[in-house]
Amino acid sequence: xxxxxxxxxxxxxxxxxxxxxxxxxxxxxxxxxxxxxxxxxxxxxxxxxxxxxxxxxxxxxxxxxxxxxxxxxxxxxxxxxxxxxxxxxxxxxxxxxxxxxxxxxxxxxxxxxxxxxxxxxxxxxxxxxxxxxxxxxxxxxxxxxxxxxxxxxxxxxxxxxxxxxxxxxxxxxxxxxxxxxxxxxxxxxxxxxxxxxxxxxxxxxxxxxxxxxxxxxxxxxxxxxxxxxxxxxxxxxxxxxxxxxxxxxxxxxxxxxxxxxxxxxxxxxxxxxxxxxxxxxxxxxxxxxxxxxxxxxxxxxxxxxxxxxxxxxxxxxxxxxxxxxxxxxxxxxxxxxxxxxxxxxxxxxxxxxxxxxxxxxxxxxxxxxxxxxxxxxxxxxxxxxxxxxxxxxxxxxxxxxxxxxxxxxxxxxxxxxxxxxxxxxxxxxxxxxxxxxxxxxxxxxxxxxxxxxxxxxxxxxxxxxxxxxxxxxxxxxxxxxxxxxxxxxxxxxxxxxxxxxxxxxxxxxxxxxxxxxxxxxxxxxxxxxxxxxxxxxxxxxxxxxxxxxxxxxxxxxxxxxxxxxxxxxxxxxxxxxxxxxxxx
Length: 584
What we know:
Blueprint: E1 2-10, H1 11-21, E2 26-29, H2 36-42, E3 48-51, H3 55-69, E4 73-77, H4 81-84, H5 87-96, E5 100-106, H6 122-126, E6 132-136, H7 142-154, E7 160-166, H8 167-171, E8 173-179, H9 195-207, E9 211-215, H10 217-221, H11 225-235, E10 239-241, H12 266-273, E11 277-281, H13 287-290, E12 301-306, E13 320-323, H14 326-342, H15 350-362, H16 377-388, E14 393-396, H17 400-408, E15 417-418, H18 429-439, E16 445-450, H19 451-457, H20 460-466, E17 472-477, H21 482-491, H22 509-515, E18 519-523, H23 529-538, E19 544-549
Parallel strand pairs: 2-3, 2-4, 4-5, 5-7, 6-7, 9-10, 9-11, 11-12, 12-13, 14-15, 14-16, 16-17, 17-19, 18-19
Antiparallel strand pairs: 1-8
Helix pairs in contact: 1-2, 1-7, 3-5, 3-18, 9-14, 11-14, 12-15, 16-17, 16-23
């Protein structure tokens, strides 16, 4: 079935109408020669176009919009360098399963393959980093392609889809024909899990003594946070939430052990490492979680539930593989567990919980006081989280400040933590916060950024000012590439090769913020932190940028060094937990 206007439209007009009809309200982009025909009908469209200052900013803004709203984000660029500037956010969205549609112009179809001006094979370039991509040279196919692109991006394991449209297709005329039902042969995401595997999982829960719910970003993507809460409280199984799943389960809940992985809590790393049953929900056994894979959770039976069958047993072999949407899996598992409870089969995990609670008490997250006269970056981030509260949204760049933001802000709600997890893209925070604020204009949105990350995409502050997008930016300014410096301290004999960004205020972030039309603030001591954050919170008619000048030798702890076992976790530089002592 299809919905047709019966009228002849240009390909460009068909593109814009298709965007309207699939429910798009915002596009982030920059015009250029090949995509220019689309910008003429966009001028009169109900779709809001936000003119960014770099195509990478458009892509990350689309990601931030998608992560904050749960809807598909949209970015647009011209051919050649415009399209290639989208490659990083597309790869980022692919790694983190973020639903975006990237629309690019392409040179006229007759010129494709001739190395024409601003030609790049963006379809070929992005084939490994998209769920699917299209090259459209027939204007009649534009509406159908847009419908299919949004369907693919927003269903199954969500992710990026690229639609590349030749300039002549945008200029030519055709009848507008948008399908009302998208039916793609070969694309049938499995939503419901196999009942036999769910029942087997329920049986394993009853028999386990040290089970763990290992929760990944797939739970957030499925909108399954409330169901996860029901499952955890029904079973009494401790929960760990990965970097991509922060907010999927409340930090304040007594069953929550924190974030696992390279910079996870001792209790969460220990819970996985010493478990006898791991229930992985929408997680992918990433190397940052497992450490050295052959030493990860050696005694655990693995139940791996994921909507993407390619993830099952990719890294750690699953004893019980479950393909299905995380929410569907959890709902059916709740029913199976309830049936077991009615029959008197109930798991007893009280001793296990007591052990992990002792670990939480013995090895809490914390940080060393800053040297006298300096400011601890962890304190700054902790206070931002406390003052802005769990209703705010927090977007982070990549590096030390990202880990501190994951550790020291308390996340109580889904959709409040936005970061670049899999790709680790510096420069993500400011444009992602911008996109999140556009999608959720009533929310307070903080970008917690490093001075290195900030200098990669800070030009989008101009976009924010001009378009009335009042985000708040906290620059954790340690005058260095902090995480790389930390590794040089620990593993390269303090040979700080090319990690010093200089402490002579080049640039002066306050002056730079003011030049972009933002409020610029600076804070250099702990006594002024709360007042500075309060001042930023009170300003809502323009973006605010705070230069928090912190000491450069702060480190992220706990830490599992790359390539080592989780058993080798360090609580602090010269302190490791004693698993045996703590009866793990």
